[in-house]
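User: Hello, can you help with two protein structures?

Assistant: Certainly.
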Amino acid sequence: MSVPQEKSRRGAADHIVGRMNAMPATILTVRWMVRDTFRQSLASKLFWVMLGLTSLCTLFAMSVSVTGAEERERHPAELPLYMPKGQGVDGIREPHGTVSVRFGMVEYPVTKGKADSVRELQLWLAGILADTAGVLLALLWTAGFVPAFLEPHAVTVLLAKPAPRWAILAGKYAGVVLFVALHATLFVGGTWLGLGFATGVWDVRYWLAVPLLVTNFAVFFAFSTFLAVCTRSTVVSVFGTLLFWVLCWAMNFTYLRLTAAPVEGITPFAQFLVEAGYWILTKPLDLSGIFFDAMDAGKYSAPVPELEAVKQKGKFHPELSVLASLSFAVGVLAVAAYEFRNMDY
């Protein structure tokens, strides 16, 4: 074998060994960043704040009781309405049960059976309270995690180590998402146990809220990470992400509205822009609709009319909706990693 061939062979071998050695370093970097994120959440007391809110919601779930509600087969054309007892009319049921919350401090009548009444509470807890207020609060409270670690006095220590910058950023992002995933699991698990022990209704479909909550947060936090890398500002990350959430919700609703009932006078170009924006951006309303269907909530709660109309037309594709939202998150993170790689310190 000639000398040039021998050098080429040794160079290729060294390159392979270098890549093998770099992979454990990358994995260790991601692990360390995840661990550091949980340490940061404990130091900032955010972990205990979120755990406290979960505990309050669990106590609320334990305070629920359902009395006098009989299980019955629901008529397909039955309206989700009720009239006071003695004033019932055809198609509108009279209440025959009571849901008591906060240990009897608040009561309201129901026309549904016990299981449906509990599922409706689960829908409100996970589908509205956690998926809207919870996700927004989580984005607000975690928006400062990435800008804080991007400060020169903090990140230069990490950059001095033999690890790629994208692994550092990916580890920080993964740490925050796993932190929120833990609290989403605690919230769903706590309220599920509370309602189960209080009412005797154990619906495992409620656990589907965990992956949907994490997906919804992960997509929006990817955009928050992008803003943090570009500006290193917590304020910009907070308000920029909130504005982005409003934009995505408005775009999602506009697409559903135009698909359900086309508006007269809208131009083809405007229709194209709405459809393009819908498929490019994330879709919070679609994710709520997926959980609504998973809980079979149409039997006991009124759906979003626009989303229901799109489903009836066969133009609602939940798998594609989730895939498109995750693809947006991956693309935004890739751009953020590229910016971080070329950032000067």
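That covers the first. Now for the second protein you mentioned:
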Amino acid sequence: MIPSNINILENHPLAPLTTWKIGGAARYLAMPRDLEEVCGLMRLAYDRGWPLFFLGRGSNVLIADQGLPGLTLYLARSLLKLERQGEYLRAGAGVPLPRLARFAAELGFSGFESLAGIPGTVGAGVRLNVGADGQNLAAALRRVWVATPQLHLIELGRTELALGYRSSLLLQFPHWLVAEAEFELRNPAPREMIQARMGELLQARRLRQPANPRSCGSVFKNPPGGPPAGKLIDELGFKGRRVGDAQVSGKHANFILNQGRATAAQVKALMAEIQDRVWHTHHIALDREVVFLPEDLI
């Protein structure tokens, strides 16, 4: 049974909960505080036949202008456990990646610095094996605990997750929820050195990426064995290209910015135009990093 003290909101706007500030409302929205409440809400959704969606800090996601049916669980304020257990770090799915990086630095362990500039959460980060500057989560990840639609808690080791570039086994199971992850602390280093490296990476990131925060991060994956997606898009003259208020960044062509009141339809039209031109010019199919909701989960 769902705890009676959980508030479920109706027709709640989702755009403010995303970095793009785009999208319609959730038919129902809940903000669970811990795994028990998450599981209670998952059970409620399945019992009532509602579609179920998970939303963390709202990066790397494009929510449809029509919003989301069913129940959306906003997890940016829950599953925030973060603690050292001997040679490992245990982190809840809702822990922001920059917080994970800072925590490891305070403990004097390297290997997490590149996460300081990534706006997502541990749960989404594990699902996509995020990373930057030559680092990704796979290098330190040891195992995860996943809640299934049947409310079974499954433990999966690093090799079972089939981690690759912006991919993992979890992408094949979008209705599984990453509850916790465990990371290895393998690279001790002076705190000052780690913090200085984090500062250097953040500064380099600011120099090459747009200052406008109303984006989802990188829109397309880099093609395997080919030029980076941003370079391909730039060479085709897309910097500054607009569809309504959706605009390709003039600083980094793999970013699409919301310059006012951009809609999901406008972003999708711009993405489709880019993919079409890259394909017809280079015969390279650009795969998107950004998740479309609800399409990718229904």
